[in-house]
Design goal:
By secondary structure, the chain is an alpha+beta fold. The chain has helices at about 10-15, 60-80, 125-139; strands spanning about 20-25, 30, 40-45, 85, 105-110. A hairpin with a 3-residue loop joins strand 1 (about 20-25) and strand 2 (about 30). It binds adenosine monophosphate and zinc ion.
Length: about 140
């Protein structure tokens, strides 16, 4: 078994819990956030488990930012939002709720506030069309 047995994102990586995937390679996974703060909200993680920016290796940090850069561009192309926010939290005091390092890629629209962080879960059928559009823009 790879990763941390109790980590929800490691469980996604092992296929033990479902996710709506956008892109997977040897080192990273991009998938839809199940409690989107804005339509099209997605996440990118390194496959190696590290809780946060203080634990992640320099190599995995570089791998993660490369994947985030690529995903942000695809979100921008696919959804044409007014802006794209990249967010990354370290420690519960900073707002982190899943302790496997990740970047949020969040489409932003002029004068539209974000939905509360990690609150309302949405159905796979809502997330899938966004994943398809973003996937197409990655090609
Ligand atoms: P953070 O608070 O930065 O640790 O963000 C964790 C994010 O993971 C939140 O936006 C949650 O909505 C999201 N999340 C939690 N569980 C899942 C899951 N099973 N699949 C997809 N996203 C998830
Ligand atoms: Zn993990």
């Amino acid at each position: 078994m790879t990763g941390d047995p109790n980590c929800i994102f490691c469980k996604i990586l092992r296929g033990e819990i479902p996710s709506v995937k956008i892109h997977e390679d040897e080192e990273t996974l991009a998938f839809m956030d199940v409690m989107p703060q804005s339509p099209g909200h997605c996440l990118v993680i390194p496959k190696n488990h590290a809780a946060n920016i203080f634990e992640v290796s320099t190599d995995d940090a570089a791998i993660l930012i490369r994947a985030t850069h690529r995903l942000a561009q695809a979100v921008n192309t696919a959804l044409k939002p007014d802006g794209v926010g990249l967010y990354q939290f370290n420690g519960s005091a900073a707002g982190q709720t899943v302790f496997h390092i990740h970047f949020h890629v969040i489409p932003r629209y002029k004068d539209v506030e974000l939905v509360m962080h990690a609150r309302d879960m949405v159905d796979k059928s809502v997330l899938q069309p966004f994943a398809e559009k973003i996937k197409a823009a990655l090609r």
